[in-house]
Design a protein that fits this description.
Strand content: 25-35%
Shape: elongated
Helix content: 25-40%
Radius of gyration: 25 Å
Structural class: alpha+beta
């Protein structure tokens, strides 16, 4: 079985070279000034940085208080919003806590016979580390709170 190789024309070589230079330029520019949103042309900082072994680890969650005063977790299956989505939108929730009203609506739609919600909070737990190992100590901060009007 014989194979024939065709020669690449000058124009074909120029196109390939131009695309290679453009992609290389985007990668270089993304590496220098890019953020996660520019991936794959920017760094994915989650894997490109390191924290101190004694820096606290943060864990975000959403909780609700119903009209009877009971507190419970609002998980993805409860309202259709996963933890990563909460963390990704945390700045928007901080800027406008009324956005949590949409979470209350989603809860009501999924649990029409459930109790009404009196409050929704986004809480961050700060877990203490010592040399990269959990100490068992933690403290919580309420990042955003919403109550119906």
């Amino acid at each position: 079985m014989s194979t024939t190789h065709e020669q690449l024309s000058g124009a074909g070589k120029a196109v390939r070279l131009g695309v290679t230079v453009a992609v290389g330029g985007l990668l270089l520019a993304g590496t220098v000034v890019g953020q996660d949103d520019a991936f794959p042309f920017g760094p994915f900082r989650m894997y490109a940085t390191t924290d101190s072994l004694d820096a606290p680890v943060k864990s975000t969650r959403m909780e609700a208080v119903d009209t009877a005063g009971r507190r419970f977790a609002l998980r993805g299956e409860t309202v259709g919003l996963r933890r990563a989505e909460i963390e990704g939108q945390l700045g928007r929730f901080r800027d406008d806590p009324q956005r949590l009203g949409a979470v209350a609506t989603a809860y009501r739609n999924r649990h029409p016979d459930g109790p009404g919600l009196a409050r929704i909070e986004i809480i961050t737990r700060h877990l203490a580390l010592d040399g990269g190992r959990p100490t068992g100590e933690h403290h919580d901060t309420v990042d955003v709170a919403w109550t119906p009007r």
